[in-house]
Each structure stands twice: as structure tokens, then as C-alpha cells.
Amino acid sequence: MRMETLRHELAHVHARRLGLAGPKWFNEGFAQEFERPVQSEGEWIGDPFPADLARAREFADAGAAKKLVGWTTSEGLDSAELEERYTLSLSFVRFQLERNAGGTLVERARAVLATNPAAVEAEWLEWLRKLDAVARAAHAPRRRARARLARRP
Q: Is-above-0.85 flag for pTM?
């Protein structure tokens, strides 16, 4: 088993133990957040710009939220449709986690669960359109360090 797959499956188990089980789009998007962590200043953080965020732009159009909400099982979906759903779910969960930046990861995840993707679809698609991989990668560790410093007494 690949390490990414192991981290993904363990994220499912841990999320359920924390009471974060939800619809398929949330479960898969949240688990993908933990597949490829990167080390920054001695801490493991989520990849600032996973390749799937760039690929999500290919699938991001009006109706993307409806596809997520309607995704209840992988049965009957071909590999291209599955790729689309997984990619969109990661991008939506990342969008919502960043949008709800205050609080713990569990609190932010609960805020994601409470959101109907269709209600924020236009904002999500605009966020995806404006993503800049270079800027995100260059500034992610510094943003993280500033946040840690701000918490110190």
C-alpha cells in the first residue's frame, strides 16, 4: 500500500472517531488533505498547492456543487467521473477550510460540514480560478510561522 493511500485511509478512521463523518464529498475531500503533507519549519502541514487544486479548474463549472452533493456512492461512475468527484471534493474542502481559518481543525471541519456546496458555488469557483501556485507555495510557511508567533504570550 502506498503511503498516500495509508494516510488517506487513516484520515477517514480518525475523522469518524472525531465525529466528522459526513457526506461522501466531505469524507473524501477531508481525507485527501492528509495524503501529501509537507514539512515546514519542523512541522507537518498540508501541501500548500496540491496538484489536484490545479486540476480542479478543469472540472469547475456551474453545476460542480450539484455533482458533489449528488455523490453518494462510487458505484456506476467510470474512472473519469471518479477523478472529477475526488478532485472537486478536495478543492471544495480546501476552499472551506481556508475560508473558515479561525479555530481548530475540528472546528473548521465542522463548519465545512455545515455548508451546502451549492450555496457558495460561485465563490468557490472564483477562488479556484484565482489560485496562484507560486504565491501559495512561497508564502505558506511564513503564514504558518506568523500564526504560531501570534499565539505566543
A: no
